[in-house]
Design goal:
Layout (H helix, E strand, L loop, with lengths): L5 E6 L2 E6 L10 H16 L5 E5 L4 E3 L4 H4 L4 H7 L16 E5 L2 E3 L1 H8 L2 E5 L3 E3 L13 H9 L1 H10 L3 E2 H7 L4 E3 L4 H13 L3 H13 L5 H14 L4 H11 L10
Parallel strand pairs: 2-3, 3-5, 4-6, 5-7, 6-8, 7-10
Antiparallel strand pairs: 1-2, 8-9
Helix pairs in contact: 5-6, 9-10
């Protein structure tokens, strides 16, 4: 497929998606969101792909939803079309791990898309924010919810109510990003992490992602019970036998994703 707003590559067992609207700082228009969903669908279907990296440019991961598409809409328009719902949640339903590699601005919808991913690597230049309040609106694609879960109520409330941006160092201290890397090493480090994940047992990786995500949806007792059932289920896989045999024999495991 030919894409107009993103670049799609395969790097071994890793799928790489680059947001590519440089003239608009990668603003998230409807066409881009549709293309992103198509690319994710393709990588989900591809048995050779074990993890996905989503990135933007050095200047901007994504500067937000496309204001030109929003400005003239009424409540009825937004409500009837279920605006920024259709396609926007595709990242959250992807079973394979997605790493957001963020440089430059990740604002509004861009910050929300990054937070939908499973983990975020931030370049030193990264800046995160939910500036919707300065436009007379509020975050609408999970910003008030995911940011609060990531950094806590006080910091999320300040950012959402004032539009203040958070730099990479503060984002790491606050738990929004997993780590900071040099600007020129961002994609390289994200691919390296994705390659490591993709080299491991696919059933175990999918189960681990599902278990961690469960922590945000249920009580501790129910989450631990869910985790334990998945843990038990891993003993039905060939990869569990291979992994433990390889450990005992002091060799590298040869996982078959079975």
């Amino acid at each position: 497929m030919t894409y107009q707003n993103i670049l799609v590559e395969t790097r071994g067992a890793v799928g790489l998606i680059t947001l590519n609207r440089p003239q608009a700082l990668n603003a998230l228009c409807d066409a881009l969101i549709r293309e992103l969903g198509t690319a994710l669908d393709g990588f989900e279907r591809d048995a050779a792909i074990g993890a996905i990296v989503l990135t933007g440019s050095e200047k901007a991961f994504a500067a937000g939803a496309d204001i030109k598409e929003m400005a003239a809409q009424s409540f009825v328009d937004c409500y009837l079309s279920d605006f920024i719902t259709n396609g926007w949640e595709r990242i959250t339903t992807c079973r394979k791990p997605i790493i957001a590699a963020v440089a430059g601005f990740a604002l509004g919808g861009g910050c929300e898309v990054a937070m939908m991913c499973d983990t975020i690597l931030a370049a030193e230049s990264a800046k995160f924010g939910q500036p919707e309040i300065t436009l007379g609106i509020i975050p609408g694609s999970g910003g008030t919810q995911r940011l609060t879960r990531a950094v806590g109520k006080a910091k999320a409330m300040e950012m959402v109510l004032s539009g203040r941006m958070m730099d990479a160092a503060e984002a790491e201290r606050s738990g929004l990003v997993s780590r900071i890397v040099a600007n020129d090493k961002l994609v390289e480090e994200a691919l390296k992490l994705a390659e490591k994940i993709a080299s491991l047992s696919r059933p175990a990786v999918l189960a681990a992602k599902e278990a961690v995500n469960r922590a945000f949806e249920t009580s501790l007792a129910e989450g631990v019970r869910f985790e334990r059932r998945l843990f038990h289920a891993m003993f039905a896989t060939e990869d569990q036998k291979e992994g433990m045999a390889a450990f005992a024999e002091k060799r590298k495991p040869q996982f078959k994703n079975r």
